[in-house]
Amino acid sequence: MFLTQLPTGEYPKLLDQKVNTVRQIFADIPLPEASVFASRPAHYRMRAEFRVWHEGDDLFYAMFDPKDPKTPIRVDQFPVASEAIWALMPTLINAIAKQPSLRQRLFQVEFLSTLAGDMLVTLIYHRKLDDSWRQAAEQLSEALNNIQVIGRSRKQRVVLDRDYVNETLQIDGQRYHYRQYEGGFTQPNAELNQTMISWAKQQFGHRPNEDLLELYCGNGNFTAPLATQFRQVLATEISKTSVRAARENFAANGTDNVRIARMSSEDFTSALNGEREFRRLEDIDLASFDFSSVFVDPPRAGLDEATCALISRFDHIVYISCNPHSLQRDLQLLTKSHRLDGFALFDQFPYTDHMECGAYLQRSVVDDSKTD
Questions:
Q1: Distance, CA of 322 to CA of 343 (rounded, Å)
Q2: Which of 70, 100, 172, 238 pairs with 213 at a CA distance of 20 to 30 A?
Q3: Is 348 within 8 Å of 300 (Cβ atoms)?
């Protein structure tokens, strides 16, 4: 479905239908009453990308139906996008169309916006970018209120000023600051992201004498707020860009009780099991951590069997999932040792089949003396 026109009046009904569909996926798992968190019905997506289509002197954004990948669908309005992206789209394409150095062999445009009001636009080309492109891009950036502009082509990346945007999230009355790099993963629905972080914090509660393990920490989106609940946190992430951003974000938020290791969840599982030693853990004393809780936000494939076995050792598990099917599979294993005490649905992508889920599990027999 191409969301160029939104049936906003039908959103509550569509959300109910989606919630019922997701409940059916978990029909064989006893679920607690699910908390359902709706999205804004429009202007909820902080990222967007479009092909650019050239027809004579005309230039327009385009999307493609997978069933007909050769026929462009013109996109003049995209109300899914944040209000900032939605407002910028026509101004940007009109400015590019008037400047030969910017429009020549332009292939794709990518937008990244923030609730804090920052904007980054990446222009992707099928040609080498020269000084005339840079000059035109600098003029474009200035004309459009100093938005950040990056040019890309094969084996070339031109950054005019900076390659990131600054975001500020409001979590339970506290402001958290994040640097979001071009090409790095960020949650697309920022307002619901705030809700997800708050929900995760509430599930864990305040555990100042215990430690948290986080796998797939990304740029520290969940890590910095969760770190306020625990004595210390050990986080892992495989992406170099995300690890760089996470370290900068911890510093920006004064988060000084987090250690981060750049490694996959599979490798960390091997390390914690004593099966292998890793140089990336040389300066981290695993024995100094008293883990009671684990937080995971894996990719769509979910957890591998070894990682599922690893997190089942922890008393408290919060699992955020972008794929109900892989979550259902993993819960089949985790509910053998844990009871499912919390379940939430976050509609990050209205009008689509996608649903973000949150699960909170506690070991079936928990030592209550650990809980503050």
A1: 14
A2: 172
A3: no
CB of 205 closer than 8 Å to CB of 143: no
Domain ranges of the chain: 8-41+189-370, 47-165
Q: What is the pLDDT of residue 371?
A: 41
The residues annotated as belonging to the active site are 322, 356
CATH class of 47-165: mainly beta
pLDDT at 369 over 80: no
Q: Which residues of 214-249 are buried (b: 16+ CB within 10 A; e: fewer)?
A: bbbbbbbbbbbbbbbbbebbbbbbbbebbbbbbbbb
- pLDDT tens digits for range 306-322: 899 999 999 999 999 99
pLDDT at position 4 over 80: no
**Around Cβ 181, how many Cβ atoms within 10 Å?**
20
Instruction: Please report where in the chains the tokens 């094969």 appear, as a residue.
Output: 154
Predicted pLDDT of residue 274:
78
**Cα 15 to Cα 29: distance, rounded to the nearest angstrom:** 21
pLDDT digits 0-9 by tens, 317-337 = 999 999 999 999 999 999 999
Supply the pTM of this predicted model: 0.93
Give the position of tokens 């649905």: 345
Tell me which CATH homologous superfamily contains domain 8-41+189-370: Vaccinia Virus protein VP39 (3.40.50.150)
